[in-house]
Design goal:
There is one protein chain. By secondary structure, this protein is mainly alpha-helical. The chain is built from 5 helices and no strands. Helix 1 crosses helix 3, helix 2 packs antiparallel against helix 3 and helix 4 runs antiparallel to helix 5.
Amino acid sequence: MHHLLPIVYAAIAAIGNAMFALGQKKSVGCENGLLFVGLSALLAALLAFLCAPLMGAFDLGQAVKGHGQSIMLSGCGLFLTYLGFNILYARYGASQYVLYAVLSIITTTIVVGVLFLKEPINIYHKLAIIVSLAAVILFSIGQAKI
């Protein structure tokens, strides 16, 4: 049963991502995309702070002291994610998600996981990466035919 937990956690993230994508697309009429992004980020931060005590020790000072650089890196990455989503969905629509998803597979799995963190991958992971690249090619061909 423990082998299914990653799928459950990924499903939670996927549902949240779908909600985020829908909100981003519905924000098209917002005069300022970054204002929308900032407000949604504030709500996300508030919810994270409310749920944080459920995940373990809640020591804000120690978290900043011990992980300040990682917090800065993650915060900047989250900003770029929000910014990219807002522009992508507002200008091109949620159907373009496949491009983000595959580029995320490459940047996260290969660059972060394999190159930076030295995580192992096997033939199945490599095949999944190849198939995901094929998805981008097929998607691009499909978009060209619309």
